[in-house]
Specification:
alpha/beta; single chain
């Protein structure tokens, strides 16, 4: 089994925070792949299903961010999982909004959720780092991560979460590079092969090439749709 952990803080008041992008991602995976309702276990909300032939458990720690490792450690011990069987989706200050990096092991970058998980299961778990951007000064970091995404963030947040959920099977199968490519294409607004994109661009004017590509369509139903509408308003 592969355990996919989304990091965040429990409670409606935190639901739209940048720090909760891990929860958002796990919720969208559950919605797109028809996971059963989340239930309480391991001091977390959990749900299990099969994605692309791989058994997957989704886990959202309910211990608050700083104690996330307690929840992850309980699940890992119960199912006898190694760190290689665990992927943790979390916010990343040191990546521009919409950028994604997936790697095994590495530093925690001051992220308290990762620090806690390191302490409970060790370092070499898979980290899915979703960029939220840095506010520019360390004194503004706390307010930045514990505040809601802005409406303009919908341009990259919606297609990113949609593509991550759609291709979650690649994460369970260990195809990090393939998944990063899928997510980059989704956020950039195209999934066409490079050669086709290049040929088309030759016929476009410089002005037209500079126009932003349309973002992928956001989910219209389900919990993720409701959360996005609350954050960014109903676009009709």
């Amino acid at each position: 089994m592969h355990l996919i952990v989304g990091l965040g803080n429990p409670g409606a008041e935190y639901a739209g925070h940048r720090h909760n992008i891990g929860f958002m991602a796990v919720d969208e995976i559950a919605r797109q792949h028809n996971f059963p309702p989340f239930r309480q276990k391991f001091s977390a909300l959990v749900s299990e299903a099969v994605i692309d032939g791989e058994k997957v458990m989704l886990l959202k720690p309910q211990t608050y961010m700083n104690l996330s490792g307690d929840s992850v450690g309980q699940a890992a011990k119960f199912y006898r999982l190694t760190p290689a069987d665990i992927s943790v989706i979390h916010d990343e200050l040191d990546l521009a909004p919409g950028k994604v990096r997936i790697k095994t092991g590495g530093g925690n970058g001051g992220h308290n959720g990762l620090k806690s998980i390191d302490a409970h299961i060790g370092n070499p778990f898979i980290r899915v780092r979703l960029g939220i951007g840095h506010p520019g000064h360390k004194d503004r970091v706390h307010a930045h991560v514990l505040s809601n995404f802005h409406k303009v963030d919908a341009e990259w947040l919606e297609p990113l979460l949609d593509a991550l959920a759609k291709n979650a099977g690649m994460l369970a199968k260990g195809d990090a590079s393939g998944l990063m490519n899928k997510l980059a294409l989704a956020v950039n607004g195209t999934d066409k092969p490079k050669s086709e994109k290049t040929e088309k661009s030759k016929a476009q004017s410089h002005v037209r090439q500079a126009r932003p590509k349309p973002a992928s369509k956001a989910p219209e139903t389900g919990p993720m749709a409701g959360m996005l509408k609350k954050l960014f308003g109903d676009k009709g």
